[in-house]
Amino acid sequence: MVCLTTDLIAKSSSHLKKKRNHSLSEYLKTLTHLNFSNRNIENIGDLSMCGNLTVLYLYDNHITHICNLGFASNLTHLYMQNNNITCIENLFNLQKLSKLYLGGNSITVVEGLDQLSELKELHLENQKLAPGEKLLLDPRTLLSLAESLCVLNINNNNIDEIRDLAVLKELKHFSAADNKLHDMEELEEVFSHWHQLHQMDLSGNPVCQTAKYRDRLITVCRRLEDLDGKEINDLSRQFLINWKASKEAKKKVKDEHIMASQLTAFPLTTDLNTAQSSQPGYDYSQTKALHRKKPLPSLRPSMRVCSDSEREARNYRHPTLTPFCY
């Protein structure tokens, strides 16, 4: 097993000439760039004497765990693609890290980046996944990167939806080629939040076969300059934007006409008989019978001529009553 240590650095031919006039400890303190790519390294040892390290190249090795990098508080670039890493861990002390390359590993969940507030580029393409497995991105990690991340590469990771990526509002370059993205409406919704996007690659996804795929994305991403490797000129963009605005205006007018015609056909107040008769099992003849006019009862009593004796008798019994007999 090859382990990256200060002794291995001291014995490296690329560093022998540089450290002739310095002690090993002094020389290690002056190091800012360290390149041990493709050296069959399986583990990272104690490198705490390299406190001024800013760029570390460890790609094309056999490293299985990210460890012993807590000393590298000045590290800005970390290249660890094409190793055997399965978990993103032990990076919380790298407060100045701006570029992280982890493509070609065996990572299944993107996490452990919550403390990297300066991270601008994240490369995760071509993970070695088990059949039927897809790369997952932890929503908490995405939220922590929302204000800083400008470049994201997730090519070829069996990804079928990117809804959680909408929070990455500072993205300028996005690569998700050779995945399983298929929902055009979902993409339009996510991209409508990315106002800084300049370059995007979605080639090799099923969604690319959707009608008007390119036109629809160009109208959503107003600053997009390159889509799937093809340049977008300002004239084409403006034409598509105007075309979309005209289409939406026509649809609005059509909807208004439909609404007006519906209001005309179905007035707000309807005849009671019509409303009742539309009910199932309703007998319209009953309504006609109920509404048939009936003669009002007479309020005036029948009149007949009273004799003088009858009139006098009534006035005697009820002198205040007005006689009705004449």
Automatic annotation (TrEMBL):
The keyword NAD does not apply. Signal peptide: none annotated. Keywords: Leucine-rich repeat, Repeat. CDD domains: PPP1R42 (cd21340). This is Protein phosphatase 1, regulatory subunit 42.
